């Protein structure tokens, strides 16, 4: 007789777990007990859940499991950044990054295997796309990272912030992302504040509105260009969701008067492409009445990217114009780039269904040489 597949409880929200127990004649507080065991005590063994009755522990062990992705490779960069390559059940691999900073630690989580979008400056795009991650695979990244990181003395937790800025477009994998995020902010699970969980999007307008109604967490927008012609080139999804309607969606997200926290505008600085003073002035006009702060990200290189990082002079000129116009502007220094863990360098190991990887392999690179 073949064994029945077990139900993985790892990615279940509080409501889903409550329903799971209700269907088996158990009270709702069982869900809270199990949530705490999984997400606060890192316990994956039902036998150790001592506040559950023996009978409940018994049938849980028969029917269910708590299964996290498997670590294939762990790397630690000179600056303390960690990167993990994680294998999923189907053999695909994704990457997760931990970035320690003064007083906080940020986990950068993936939402898809590869990415279906085709942003010209991102190495994940070159991998093509395989599938969406499940909520268990998304929250599992937090579980795995937590298990590998020890809090320093006086620190209550190592991971204080989560950003969905790893592989994939989170808003094209809506339900599993929302389920995983709801566990990140659930008091009986990780209990992070909503301001400390950031969803980063290339600008999927209908999903931004849905997120606003469903679970209001911090939002980052990958802007990268101040006009449609350039953004169409760098972030091709812009053809479907252009800047005018996109800025309207940003205003809706922050609400009237910007009473929800401002949107973070991400802007990758690429030499000679989007980094001139003219671009900066255009950006100031575009963002005039959008409550936001601006994050400048020096372009991180990868093989055959065909782009270069902006010079320090260009960066500081660009930043100066934004600051003078009154925008909070931060330059994000590359972290973990010696292990290819910086923004846009995540590649995982994707079984590409889109044949995009093949297409890129045939395109001559910037030096005009076609790779073998
Ligand atoms: N799909 C989502 C989340 C993943 S990308 C999004 O587009 O927001 C996370 C951030 O890294 C985005 O702002 C992305 O534009 C940026 N990024 C991608 N490639 C990069 C590169 N080569 N150098 C610097 N930043 C990059």
Automatic annotation (TrEMBL):
UniProt GO cellular component terms: cytoplasm
Cofactor(s) for this UniProt protein: [4Fe-4S] cluster
Binding of [4Fe-4S] cluster, residues: 115, 119, 122
Catalytic activity: adenosine(37) in tRNA + 2 reduced [2Fe-2S]-[ferredoxin] + 2 S-adenosyl-L-methionine = 2-methyladenosine(37) in tRNA + 5'-deoxyadenosine + L-methionine + 2 oxidized [2Fe-2S]-[ferredoxin] + S-adenosyl-L-homocysteine; adenosine(2503) in 23S rRNA + 2 reduced [2Fe-2S]-[ferredoxin] + 2 S-adenosyl-L-methionine = 2-methyladenosine(2503) in 23S rRNA + 5'-deoxyadenosine + L-methionine + 2 oxidized [2Fe-2S]-[ferredoxin] + S-adenosyl-L-homocysteine
Residues covered by the Radical SAM core domain: 101-333
Active site per UniProt: 95 (proton acceptor), 343 (s-methylcysteine intermediate)
Listed EC numbers: 2.1.1.192
Co-factor remark: Binds 1 [4Fe-4S] cluster. The cluster is coordinated with 3 cysteines and an exchangeable S-adenosyl-L-methionine.
Pfam families associated with the record: Radical_SAM, RlmN_N
UniProt subcellular location: Cytoplasm
Residue intervals passing through the bilayer: none
Binding positions for S-adenosyl-L-methionine per the UniProt entry: 168-169, 200, 222-224, 300
GO molecular function annotation: 4 iron, 4 sulfur cluster binding; metal ion binding; rRNA (adenine(2503)-C2-)-methyltransferase activity; rRNA binding; tRNA (adenine(37)-C2)-methyltransferase activity; tRNA binding
Misc remark: Reaction proceeds by a ping-pong mechanism involving intermediate methylation of a conserved cysteine residue.
Job of this protein: Specifically methylates position 2 of adenine 2503 in 23S rRNA and position 2 of adenine 37 in tRNAs. m2A2503 modification seems to play a crucial role in the proofreading step occurring at the peptidyl transferase center and thus would serve to optimize ribosomal fidelity.
NCBIfam families: rRNA_mod_RlmN
Family the entry assigns: Belongs to the radical SAM superfamily. RlmN family.
Protein name, UniProt field: Dual-specificity RNA methyltransferase RlmN
Gene symbol of the encoding locus: rlmN
């Amino acid at each position: 007789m073949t064994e029945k597949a077990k139900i993985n409880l790892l990615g279940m929200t509080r409501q889903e777990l409550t329903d799971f127990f209700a269907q088996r004649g158990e009270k709702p507080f069982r869900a809270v007990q199990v949530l705490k065991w999984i997400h606060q005590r890192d316990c994956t063994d039902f036998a150790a859940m001592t506040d559950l009755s023996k009978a409940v522990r018994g049938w849980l062990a028969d029917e269910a499991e708590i299964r996290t992705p498997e670590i294939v490779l762990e790397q630690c960069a000179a600056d303390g950044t960690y990167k993990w390559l994680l294998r999923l059940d189907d053999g695909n691999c994704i990457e997760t990054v931990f970035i320690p900073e003064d007083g906080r630690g940020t986990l950068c989580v993936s939402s898809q295997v590869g990415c279906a979008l085709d942003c010209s400056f991102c190495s994940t795009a070159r991998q093509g796309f395989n599938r969406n991650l499940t909520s268990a695979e998304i929250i599992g990244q937090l579980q795995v990272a937590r298990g590998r990181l020890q809090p320093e003395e006086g620190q209550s937790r190592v991971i204080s912030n989560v950003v969905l800025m790893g592989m994939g477009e989170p808003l094209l994998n809506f339900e599993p992302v929302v389920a995983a995020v709801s566990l990140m902010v659930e008091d009986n699970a990780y209990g992070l504040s909503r301001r400390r969980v950031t969803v980063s999007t290339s600008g999927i307008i209908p999903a931004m509105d849905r997120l606003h109604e469903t679970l209001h967490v911090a939002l980052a927008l990958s802007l990268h260009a101040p006009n449609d012609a350039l953004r169409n080139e760098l972030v091709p999804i812009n053809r479907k969701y252009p800047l005018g309607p996109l800025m309207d969606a940003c205003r809706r997200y922050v609400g009237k008067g910007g009473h929800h926290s401002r949107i973070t505008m991400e802007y990758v600085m690429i030499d000679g492409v989007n980094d001139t003073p003219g671009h900066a002035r255009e950006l100031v006009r575009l963002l005039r009445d959008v409550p936001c702060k601006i994050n400048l990200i020096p372009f991180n290189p990868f093989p055959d990217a065909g782009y270069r990082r902006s010079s320090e002079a260009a960066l500081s000129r660009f930043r100066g114009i934004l600051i003078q116009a009154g925008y909070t502007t931060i330059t994000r220094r590359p972290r973990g780039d010696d292990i290819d863990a910086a923004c846009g360098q995540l590649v995982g190991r994707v079984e590409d269904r889109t044949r995009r990887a093949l297409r890129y392999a045939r395109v001559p690179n910037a030096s005009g040489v076609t790779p073998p």
